[in-house]
Amino acid sequence: MATERLSLLPDGRVTYGLRHPWRDGTTHVVFEPLDLVARLAALVPPPRVHLVRYHGILAPAAQARSAVVPVPQGPAPEPRAHAGCAAEPARPPRPRPRNYTWAELMRRVFEVDVLACPRCAGQMRILAAIHSTEAIRAILECLGLPRAPPIAPALELFEEPETQPW
Question: Which of the chain's ends, N or C, has fewer CB atoms near its CB within 10 Å?
Fold first, then answer.
């Protein structure tokens, strides 16, 4: 919307001059102020919505999309194996999964590769995911590691006023 073509009429209505006349010869459109704001508000996209939509072969679920959209490829560093780390040989890149793994999300958000071995930079594997609190507590106690502190009781912010005999 060009603000140069927007003007206020003496009766409080708003007029907008069109860039090209319509077929019926209309050159200006007149709105009530609230009506104009309502029409402009309808053009504002909702928050967190993509503004670019792809259709046809570029659509996300198109069957032939992989034939036209390039897959980023780059040389991966060769991992060096050492004792205690199962470094795996480099594999060809797989297509990006629809949902990211936990490690990929950590890398994208915090720029930290949580599965990189700190000694040889090789790729580590997740051997197990332990969810049981009893098992976690037993493992931490066996390793001599501190566990999470217990949750403290809520503080009383307001005390009962003392009753004073007057």
Answer: C
Query: Could you give the residue ranges of the DSSP H alpha helices within the chain?
Result: 33-41, 65-68, 102-110, 133-143
Amino acid of residue 124:
M
**How is residue 7 annotated by DSSP?**
E
The string over 35-52, giving b where at least 16 C-beta atoms fall within 10 Å of a residue's C-beta and e elsewhere, is ebeeeeeeeeeeeeeeee
Enter the pTM of the model. Answer: 0.33
Token pair of 114 as six digits: 């949580």
Spatial CB neighbours of 140, under 8 Å, sequence gap ≥ 6: 146, 147
- Sequence-distant (≥ 6) Cβ neighbours of residue 95 within 8 angstroms: 66, 71
Residue with tokens 């053009």, as numbered in its chain? 43
| Phi, psi (degrees; rounded to nearest 5) at 6 | -100, 130
Q: List C-alpha distances in Å: 49 to 33, 44, 52, 53, 65.
A: 28, 11, 9, 10, 22
- Mean pLDDT, consecutive 10-residue stretches, the chain (166 aa), reads 91 94 94 93 83 80 84 62 59 68 85 88 86 88 78 67 58
Backbone angles phi, psi at 72, to 5 degrees: -65, 130
Q: Which amino acid is at 118?
A: P
